[in-house]
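Beta-barrel assembly machine subunit BamE, Varunaivibrio sulfuroxidans. Tokens?
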Amino acid sequence: MGLFSQARQYTFARGRKSRLAYFAALMLVGVALTACAPRIETHGSDPDPAKVAEIVPGDYTKQTVKDVLGSPSSVAVFDKNEVWYYITEHTATEAFFKPKVTARTILVIAFDNKGVVRSVKKVGLDQAQNMTPVTRETPTAGNELTLMQQLLGNLGRFEDTGKKKP
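Tokens:
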């Protein structure tokens, strides 16, 4: 085997390794880029805007609204005249981070006491308000026991119910 053929084999082997490394690096970059693409999710019912435009206050009843839009996401409980809510939320999740709300739409349909549509209103994310939950705790009567008190507190409290009769 001559010197030229040995050099050629070395160059070919080295070229194959570099192509393999290039391909592996390209695949790694491709996987990394697709992992960063956000995952879009839609929650709730998203009524068709053309169907929402059909609902005219004073003409539609609860049943006709249900036939056109389907069942509402939520119904107001404490309102004397019923209010239906159709809630839609779009979120985007990137990699392992917490999902971010990208859009939220609430369609509010209010009915009068006869069950006829009184008003139709659309509320968006721009009208949302932040709420701070109350962090108070409800006090309970009794003692707060440690783990050891709970484990050892029952020792000696058991009665022997299976006494032998003479």
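The chain has a mean pLDDT of 81.
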